[in-house]
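Section 5.1 Outputs to date
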Amino acid sequence: MAARRAVMTEAQARRFIRAARAEDPRAVVEIVTEAGTIRIMPEPTVAPTVEQEHDKRKPIPWT
């Protein structure tokens, strides 16, 4: 079976992503081709955790 011809080069895809992220670092980049869609999501941000009062208490030792 013959390999399919590339729709775009890796360099072109990198340029598309770089251009989108230059405008908005949190941008979702979608590249749509006849073969399907490639969706590149931004890295998830980790929300700061809030220390709760019950987290500060010492556990009750079982006797």
